[in-house]
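Follow-up to my post from last week.
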Amino acid sequence: MAVANIEVSETPLVLYALRRADDALILGHRLSEWCGHAPAMEEDMALANMGLDLLGQARELYTYAAKVEGRGNDEDKFAYLRDVRQYRNLLLVEQPNGDFARTMVRQFFYAAFADLYWRAMMASSDPTFAAIAAKSEKESAYHLRHSSEWIVRLGDGTEESHRRAQNAIDDLWAYTGEMFAVDDGERGLIDAGIAIDPATLKSRWLKTVTGIVNEATLALPKSDWMQQGGRVGSHSEHLGHLLSELQSLQRTFPGATW
Amino acid sequence: MYTQALNSSDGDDRGVEDVARASQFQARIDADERIEPNDWMPAAYRKTLTRQISQHAHSEIVGMLPEGNWITRAPSLRRKAALLAKVQDECGHGLYLYAAAETLGTSREELVDAMLSGKAKYSSIFNYPTLTWADIGTIGWLVDGAAIMNQIPLCRCSYGPYARAMIRVCKEESFHQRQGFEIMVTLCRGTAEQKAMAQNALDRWWWPVLMMFGPPDQVSQHSDTSTKWKIKRFSNDELRQKFIDATVPQAEFLGLTIPDPGMKQNENGNWVHSPIDWDEFKQVLAGNGPCNRDRLAARRKAHEEGAWVREAAMAYAEKRKSRQLAQAAE
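User reply:
Got it. Predicted complex:
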């Protein structure tokens, strides 16, 4: 017996929380895939640590989305009983781990944004978001520091590490534009002071990213073509596989409590 | 988590280097003093501890694999976070233990290489597969439970760095054990399918867990020296008995059946198990368990695929150092 997907009333506020929750869950899940397989034990620890931070953020955001929605959904229903078209995360975070350079570049692009984003969100007029932001900001600051250090080590390390890091930047660059996009629903939340306008973070994000990339003797691509779609459920092929793994038990044993 | 089965000493103290120092050393141990890294110690004591602590570290690191197998499939976000944190704890134990082993004079690289080459042993229990979510509960409940039985006495081990590491490790292990039992409680109160899953996991893990305590006392070698050095404080059979007596009521509480129809309680209240299949133990130890090859292959793959990352970090550190030197010279 298959388990049906839940229905979600995606009011602007619910959708806003779900999008950020999905970012955190999917990226956290990707990092957790490394556990036991990292290039050094210290990195097993660090990647698990960041994965746990993100998982914690996702749980708080899902719980808040459920509360605002008020239809009896909860963190697990959101995570386990929505299919690929219902997921609202950035395309960036669902990209596969690849090699360690790709994982670090993905983490770096995202953390450089999340660090600014959560710091700004601490001023949200919504007290729950402000509280989640205060906690997440501290975590993101570490994620940014950790990934920045690796970008520099890899870029300015050996020929091979430089090549791998540059490839990762080239491949992932097109997924960074989506972080700064805003739709009409979000515009309303921005006007109400609940959300912040990500466009205002872009120049600082670019400055951070350019600074580290230059220090690493790497380069950002010239292309400004940006992929979009994650926020409305048009994902890459990778997400479906991630979800089929993540959701396997909940989908196989309908209604069971774990 | 670790295994009593690997608590044996590497030879005896005959042919000891310096008889006078050896007797002073033994006097300190008899007086329950802690031996510290810079203290004189017999070569066999150093060798025994280097092997035991590093095997313990290898066990933590290899032990990440069977449970890591379920991180991406954990059935709720709470379980996922708890499992990821648990496997991370194990990695932390591994790092901590390698550091303790290094105080005896062998580098982590050498110790890890010995594991990757298959020369060094790790706990055989991790050569069994985790087939269902109930295995994660069972590992916490029984495997961590058995490891705690072995590790609590190690908190009083005569070698200071190992004893101190064990104090912290035991705190986390007992938390893991409770978490595992809680998974079992949830499954056993769940649907018929979940309960069957729990029973099946117990059926598969019970005998391998009993083997974790090592061969029966009458056939285990060298334990006298380890006991004399206060590295090993209880015999294999003593700890096995303690574990079984503690576990039987827990299985009853869960409504699960221990897969040993011949098990009986004796006049002292101890549960007496049926004979253990030591051939299976020997086969797994010899490399023929269901997952020996997979476990080593996974560790080797991580090591080999991570080589360029470690090289890059080294190369960058060197470059940075020479730049700083050049700057200072200006």
